[in-house]
Amino acid sequence: MYRKILITTDGSTVSKHTACAGVRFAQQMGAEVLALFVAPEYQFPVYVEIVPPAYPSEDEYFEAMRRVGADHLRSIQDKSASCNLHCETLVEFSDATAQKICDVAEERGCDLIFIGSHGRSGWGQVLLGSVTNKVLSHTAKPVLVHRLLQNPVD
């Protein structure tokens, strides 16, 4: 049914549990996995006239975020390998995370987006915003939302 499943992570405990569930789902479907970490774009300091010496350069920032992304994606890669699934990892940069997730799913030919939800509702969801809700409203691709019913423990 699904041949390629996009699994997103932001490195949080919720997304780690979601990613693990996503890999198990991919295994059941016999699908390959595309694991995605979206990092924010580099921000120049706008509050000072000159850049402080300790402030990272654009290149340093991108390299550091690629390392952070690779660390977060490693658990998906390891879980996929233990399930004998092909897994590709990808670190992207965008301040519009939901749109980037949708774009990657389209560009890479994914059949399904597997994404987590903190399970907030009502005002908590409205005030905090939700990447998951934005993905649901910005893509025509199927989206499977994995919701944790209780708080996970690290």
TrEMBL record:
Residues 1-145 form the UspA domain. Belongs to the universal stress protein A family. This is Universal stress protein. It comes from Zemynaea arenosa. The lineage of its organism: Bacteria, Pseudomonadati, Pseudomonadota, Betaproteobacteria, Burkholderiales.
